[in-house]
Amino acid sequence: MAFTLTPALADDFVGRKEITSELVNQLSSRNKIGYSLSGVRRIGKTSILKEVERRLTENRKVPVAYVSVWRVSPNTIDEFVRVANRAALNAFRNRLPAKFKFEELLVTGKAALTRFLNSLKLSAKVTDDLEVSISYVRREASDVDDALTGCFSLIEHLGEMTRTNSVLIVDEFPSLVDLTYGAKNQKIGDSMIKLIRTLYEGFKRTKLVISGSYRQTMRNLVAKQSAPFYKQLLLREIEPFSESEYKEFLQHYLPGLKFTRDAVREQLYRISSGIPYNLQLLGSEIQLQGLNHLSSEKLSGVVDGVLRKEGELSFKEFVDDLTPSEVKVLRALARSSDIKPSGIAAQQFMDKDTVGYSLSLLVNKGIIVRRGRGAYVFPDNLFGEWLKSSDDL
């Protein structure tokens, strides 16, 4: 069986039956219910979103525009507008009166653009959205609010024109605030999210689905009374694989693997924390080593192999954006799972208030979880193992 570190699709998508069924059923219904998905990195949010997109488009015939903010490169508003408009037009490609691509519009001369758009027999609103977007992408206009309004309104206006209900998925939604614009590369900030909220309130044919890795950030967007999308989106927390989903993963990806003891099966589940990405890493190493029987000793070798070959690539990004104090706290927690904040302060020669503040930040970022008074654990045990084995933090 082929393992993957990219989203698992179609037949390779296992587990997650409850959340995918809920999303597909609600998003294809007449209800105007959108969703916000949160969960730690690599928990499988994108795989869920891509599977929902596949089922909606193939089985329910619902147009879906999927945009991943992390894949917008360069990280600018004009590139985001290009990607989002391409996704919207692609979602409606079989419903439009003429076949064309967004790139064709970009290379059409300014004087001929309106004439070309009119020849496509699009609605006036869709034509206006595209003209504004194209002008901004080609740097012929500089009004960022107009460009974003046209960009996010396009899928709604395409739905109005074709009398079709659709879905807009924005993966890693909180990263929108980091997009830049203008000659000075200014960050767009929270104003972009507020604009989307205002536009979405008026949408009648478009349902919105957003995702993000930081639990607290997503709650701030959805769950609080002051949140931009309060009572507009349902918040769903994506949890690690359950034991039954873990069993389904083994049956699908490692059907011939035997365990010397049930405790070894549980050990593999525990070290992976039930995170699909970790299971893919460990499973591919088991396959690479040609193991048909897995003992505790061999599993230790598998973990060592993964950390040695993939740890830097897979986990270093978790600490790249952290402060030195946060990294010191993580290092202490990795070395001793039952260490208390006072112990961290003593071990790392840190002020107690700094330790407390760092712990709070790490919890909000989803990198650690508070289990009780002074008790913190890693939601990703493989990441914790990498921290212990890594000398370059």
Shape from CA axes? globular
CATH architecture verdict of the largest domain: 3-Layer(aba) Sandwich
Q: State the helical fraction.
A: 40-55%
The total count of strands amounts to: 11
Percentage of residues in DSSP E strands: 5-15%
The structural class is: alpha/beta
Order of helices and strands: HEHEHHHHHEEEHEHEHEHHEHHHHEEH
Radius of gyration: 24 Å
Biggest β-sheet: count, sense, barrel? 5 strands, parallel
CATH fold field value of the largest domain? Rossmann fold
**What gap, in angstroms, lies between the N and C termini?**
34 Å
Strand arrangement within the widest β-sheet reads: 2-3-6-1-7
CATH superfamily of the largest domain: P-loop containing nucleotide triphosphate hydrolases
CATH class of the largest domain: Alpha Beta
Question: How do the strands and helices of this protein lay out in sequence?
Answer:
Layout (H helix, E strand, L loop, with lengths): L16 H11 L6 E5 L6 H14 L5 E5 L8 H15 L10 H5 L3 H10 L4 H14 L6 H19 L3 E6 L8 E2 L4 E2 L3 H12 L3 E7 L2 H8 L10 E5 L5 H11 L4 E2 L2 H11 L3 H13 L4 E2 L1 H25 L3 H12 L5 H8 L3 H13 L4 E4 L2 E3 L3 H9 L4
Parallel strand pairs: 1-6, 1-7, 2-3, 3-6, 8-9
Antiparallel strand pairs: 4-5, 10-11
Helix pairs in contact: 1-2, 3-6, 3-7, 6-7, 7-8, 12-13, 13-17, 14-15, 14-17, 15-16
